Amino acid sequence: xxxxxxxxxxxxxxxxxxxxxxxxxxxxxxxxxxxxxxxxxxxxxxxxxxxxxxxxxxxxxxxxxxxxxxxxxxxxxxxxxxxxxxxxxxxxxxxxxxxxxxxxxxxxxxxxxxxxxxxxxxxxxxxxxxxxxxxxxxxxxxxxxxxxxxxxxxxxxxxxxxxxxxxxxxxxxxxxxxxxxxxxxxxxxxxxxxxxxxxxxxxxxxxxxxxxxxxxxxxxxxxxxxxxxxxxxxxxxxxxxxxxxxxxxxxxxxxxxxxxxxxxxxxxxxxxxxxxxxxxxxxxxxxxxxxx
Length: 292
Known about the structure:
single chain
């Protein structure tokens, strides 16, 4: 027997498809143009010049390395860089995959169903897509009294210190030509407005995390971190983890050894003796429920 039509679920399915541009996204990647590859080779040359000393140390064995660092500095080809440069291309309002969007929805449903107190927050929002979904979820599931906190520099990713985390610094150098995910506050507000979701339940924290997050004094039921770098992720955890209610969720978008967020999460969990199990969603997205 066919399940009865559920308007709220139909709305959320359509909202996720619109945010990710899945309604119009080509099924396969378009070939790279000559101009794209020319630009990519220029970026590759610039990055290798910027990190020439580190490349010499890698080749001589004088520097401890990871496969990711070797690949980025010595093995990347033009098409690899061209794919990097497409990341910030126009189109979607989120880069999240369907399983990542479903993960936000599943966590939100749990905290709303079990009445876990607190608001929702994402740190590192790009064009605001995940936060737009959070507000849509709150309203569709009858939890419009909660708020969505949209935390971002709105100036792009900060430049990592290569002495502290070389891998982050190398990726940052590649992404310079994309604007390092820079989307200004007015653009993000306008994206909320397009979905008719810019209301009193949406709050913006504009500025670098080390300036804004220590001043946040609210309570959270859902915390999503998408700051990529080691320092950004560690700052967010140190400032906000204790604000997450028992039973709430912490979602880490970049839990992958290629970026510094992986090391920051491992370090923080070890230091705080957090044993709540990490659940894997895809090759980089992990989350845990705060139970301890």
